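Severity: low
Component: inverse-folding endpoint
Summary: output formatting inconsistent between runs
Steps to reproduce: submit the following structure tokens with default settings.
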């Protein structure tokens, strides 16, 4: 089967490409390289021995998207391409609405036009906002998003659900994942964002090796065990494997529901300070950090109930926080 991976040179996308190839799928990658490097392709080849087809393309260009689908036969799409930082989305909401919503619409239009049935959406636990109960189940009330980024994921899911409701051929899965971290065990690919990192773990890594002088921990007064935010940190390889399992469910599915959602996490929450302690423990390095005021858009705590994904997909996270941090 030929699978299109949009944003396939990015952090999660590149690891998913590796897992797809190792399961025997042909892969074509679309990426505009806005937050990644074409050099990641060399890492993919080093791991798998397979050169994926790569097309540099900005999904905001509708004409280019149409031209791509006219020249490629695709069996399924995993849609990662999007801007992904909570803080940045608060500062630049229009960028997020253009990059995350318009691109999704253009891809879905092409799926309808070419009768491509299988679609996986890269969603997020941010759709829940600050959940009333923890751990968070897929049935949790979806509240008003705490950030424009979270809102794009809520709206994205609603768009897909509406299309599935009237479509005779589209089957879609939204994977609501929590906080991906880590790297492939080969260290050929990992998380290396361009510019200043917008996520915790790459900033920890860059501070640890001296690229960044100091890590800012946003908020030390949350109602948690140590005053810092709680998140569910999942190894990116575990997450990538979940995408493969989900795609194979779509390819083989006789499921009556044509739109499904699954939480992808470990089921365990860790505070920011616990992540820092993990880094210090596995590297024997003292990290330079300070507590600063809270950041707009952050919720207090979020970690997954993984009962549904275990029972329906037979998937569960395998790696510990320390293992993920060590790989990073």
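Observed output (run 2 of 3):
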């Amino acid at each position: 089967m030929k699978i299109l991976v949009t944003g396939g040179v990015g952090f999660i996308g590149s690891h998913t490409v590796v897992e797809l190839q190792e399961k025997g799928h042909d892969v074509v990658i679309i990426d505009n390289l806005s937050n990644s490097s074409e050099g990641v392709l060399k890492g993919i080849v080093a791991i798998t021995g397979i050169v994926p087809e790569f097309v540099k393309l900005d999904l905001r260009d509708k004409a280019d998207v149409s031209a791509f689908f006219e020249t490629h036969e695709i069996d399924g799409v995993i849609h990662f391409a999007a801007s992904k930082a909570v803080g940045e989305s608060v500062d630049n909401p229009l960028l997020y609405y253009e990059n995350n919503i318009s691109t999704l619409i253009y891809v879905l239009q092409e799926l309808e036009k070419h009768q491509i049935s299988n679609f996986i959406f890269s969603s997020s636990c941010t759709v829940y906002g600050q959940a009333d109960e923890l751990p968070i189940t897929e049935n949790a009330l979806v509240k008003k998003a705490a950030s424009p980024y979270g809102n794009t994921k809520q709206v994205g899911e609603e768009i897909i659900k509406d299309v599935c409701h009237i479509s005779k051929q589209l089957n879609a899965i939204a994977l609501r994942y929590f906080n991906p971290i880590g790297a492939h065990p080969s260290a050929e690919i990992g998380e290396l964002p361009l510019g200043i990192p917008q996520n915790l773990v790459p900033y920890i890594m860059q501070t640890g090796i001296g690229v960044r002088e100091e890590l800012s921990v946003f908020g030390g007064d949350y109602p948690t065990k140590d005053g810092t935010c709680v998140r569910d940190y999942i190894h990116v390889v575990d997450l990538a494997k979940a995408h493969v399992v989900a795609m194979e469910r779509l390819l083989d599915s006789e499921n009556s529901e044509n739109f499904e959602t699954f939480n992808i996490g470990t089921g365990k929450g860790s505070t920011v300070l616990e992540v820092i302690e993990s880094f210090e423990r596995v590297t024997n390095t003292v990290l330079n950090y300070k507590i600063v005021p809270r950041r707009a858009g952050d919720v207090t705590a979020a970690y997954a109930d993984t009962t549904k994904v275990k029972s329906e997909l037979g998937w569960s996270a395998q790696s510990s926080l320390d293992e993920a941090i060590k790989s990073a």
